[in-house]
């Protein structure tokens, strides 16, 4: 049961509180900051419904994550996961940070077409271990984060392949931190909690079967779990139920296919194993508020 006094913030809420400008992709926000606040805008504990890669470039940042205190120094990075209760305890006057915040929907955009989820299991780790970066690793992190910020800037003039640059830059950053995490914590798999193991297994199965299977029962039975237990675990870890994650995967693939003008809606429905175009249209509209043809029209 969540404590009523703990506020829940979306990425947009955090953007407003920081005084940042909204960026191109609302599921991704890069905050490049020097400590220009008289006091932190986050006075009380809060939950955020997104992931954040927090890298300290200068100064000291003292924070509580689920009541456990972490002191981050320059050259250190930590991953904050969705639904973590976060309270900023203290910041130094010379603090300089980079925060890359993203939703689980954005992860789907990056990884949906991959064959497996190698390198990103650190996103479901149960603890919050810090990563100590070398100077070269820190420089790479800064370079990739600034490239993301530049291309996700809503004020930047559109250029060819801009979305692809965002996706691939983020993918590089994701695997960059994943590689460092694996080096520092080579026995990660042995220390995953049962909930994290279930989440990782579900995501891998979802990646393999989402086109053919949209039933929570299918995934639960393949993992020897009840549908209710699977959804509870996924909700605790990711903030979404099994059904919601399945719908997210199918809709993301549908949007990608609809962006290809050479494919008819009937072909897309068939590719996603819907019984007919009408059923696909109803499913898509239920989850997006738009018909497939309307979505294609306004995004073309």
From TrEMBL:
Transmembrane segments: none
Pfam families hit by this protein: HTH_18 (PF12833)
InterPro entries xrefs: Homeodomain-like_sf (IPR009057), HTH_AraC (IPR018060), Tscrpt_reg_AraC-type_HTH (IPR020449)
Classification via Gene3D superfamilies: Homeodomain-like (1.10.10.60)
Species annotation: Polaribacter butkevichii
Keywords (A to Z) from UniProt: DNA-binding, Transcription, Transcription regulation
Coiled-coil segments: none
Keyword Heme: no
Domain HTH araC/xylS-type stretches: 200-298
Name of the protein described by the UniProt record: HTH araC/xylS-type domain-containing protein
SUPFAM superfamilies hit by this protein: Homeodomain-like
GO molecular function terms attached to this record: DNA-binding transcription factor activity; sequence-specific DNA binding
């Amino acid at each position: 049961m969540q404590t009523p006094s703990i506020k829940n913030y979306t990425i947009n809420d955090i953007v407003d509180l920081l005084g940042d400008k909204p960026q191109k992709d609302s599921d991704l926000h890069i905050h490049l900051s020097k400590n220009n606040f008289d006091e932190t805008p986050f006075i009380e504990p809060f939950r955020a419904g997104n992931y954040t890669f927090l890298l300290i470039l200068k100064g000291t940042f003292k924070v509580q994550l689920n009541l456990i205190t972490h002191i981050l120094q320059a050259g250190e990075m930590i991953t904050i996961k969705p639904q973590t209760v976060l309270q900023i305890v203290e910041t130094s006057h010379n603090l300089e940070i980079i925060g890359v915040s993203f939703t689980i929907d954005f992860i789907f955009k990056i990884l949906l077409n991959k064959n497996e989820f190698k390198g990103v299991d650190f996103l479901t780790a149960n603890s919050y271990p810090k990563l100590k970066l070398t100077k070269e690793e820190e420089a790479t992190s800064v370079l990739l984060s600034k490239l993301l910020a530049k291309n996700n800037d809503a004020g930047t003039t559109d250029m060819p392949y801009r979305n692809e640059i965002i996706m691939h830059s983020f993918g590089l950053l994701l695997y960059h931190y994943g590689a460092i995490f694996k080096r520092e914590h080579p026995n990660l798999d042995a220390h995953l909690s049962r909930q994290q193991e279930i989440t990782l297994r579900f995501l891998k199965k979802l990646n393999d079967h989402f086109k053919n299977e949209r039933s929570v029962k299918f995934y639960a039975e393949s993992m020897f779990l009840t549908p209710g237990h699977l959804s509870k675990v996924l909700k605790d870890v990711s903030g979404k139920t099994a059904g919601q994650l399945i719908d997210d995967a199918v809709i993301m693939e549908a949007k990608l296919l609809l962006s290809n003008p050479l494919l008819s809606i009937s072909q897309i429905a068939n590719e996603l194993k819907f019984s007919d175009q009408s059923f696909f249209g109803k499913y898509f509209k239920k989850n997006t508020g738009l018909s497939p043809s309307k979505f294609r029209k306004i995004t073309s």
